[in-house]
Amino acid sequence: MMKRTVEHPSLSLILEILNDRSVNHSPELDWGSITEAAKQTRLAPLLFSKITSPAMVRHIPHDALAELKKEYFLAEAAALIRIKECRRILEALANRQIHVILLKGIDLSLTVYNSPGLRPMADLDLLVRLQDVEGVKAELLNLGYTNEEDEFWPGSNRLIDIEENFVHQKNGLHVEVHWNLSGAYRRYLPPIDWFWKTRRTLNTAQLPVDQIYGLSPSANFLYLSTHLLKHGGGRPENIIWLYDLHLLVMKFGDELDWQALYQVCEKFKCGAPVLVSINNLQNYFATPIPAQASTLFAKFSKTEYARIIFLRSALPHFNFSNAYWHFVGAGWISRLLYFFAWLFPSVQYMTKKYPQSSGWLLPLAYISRWFHLLGQLFKALRAGYFRNS
After folding, report:
1. Are both 376 and 296 inside the same structural domain?
2. 190 lies in a domain?
3. pLDDT for res 21
């Protein structure tokens, strides 16, 4: 199901090197294209770390090697800054007795990669309990962050979304504060309490702060697989996220309880992303996943969730798409709230989104918004969204 192959020759060579396979050092290799592909996929630091042996270096043009080396050291420097800032945030939250689970890049860079700089990331992702969000928000504002969210209505994000985004006014660092996971497929994930109950304590020298955690290996595999599919699955630009899963299996393979994960996925009908990840991992990286796991999760290939995943990969993406997948994955209460907020956002939202819509022009702004949404709806109909629902 949705098994993919790498067709780009430069990316294929990069994967060969990451997999520690022997490479044919032909003079015809275009290291300029290879370097560019590595940068576009955020694999440049990793690639440089794999080619530093004398046997490899002598086959690589000086310019390409210098560019990869620059990317490596820039990534390491960025990681130092990011970890220092993360520590500052976590210490402030610890003073409020707020427990935090580190998600995605920041967690993986500290646990499965040999060095944090090998895992570039655009932001820090933190999971907190819903009742702690206001406390987290207050601390981030005190630390110089601003809230990037444009809420339809004050407080509506807590009802229909899963995260809020903050950016530091000086260093530009982005922080995503989550209180739930994977909004587009919320109906197809275990309750958030399951992720908290199965969490593991994170002990790392880089972040010597109390009350910080990571997801358990099994929960992390499910979450990362779902997140990967939400953003297009095994497309070339997402290869680093698939490599995250590969390293997770390599590092925590003994702790990954496939049978227990299968039972959770069966209960909540959420096994399709795991199946896709298993297939892609074996295809791209020959990741050593037990045959029993492959057999168990193959049963999810015919589920409703699998059908939704296939449709999402096949249908074109445009502005309406995110709203559509939110409706597909959310429960009915969330759907109704989102529908109302989408059509009738607050005056505050409208005046910020449409600066010219003040005074008597405000009703026209609402009408303009509705016509735009109607145009998106017709575009979705022509694209086959509802025909395949």
Report:
1. no
2. yes
3. 76
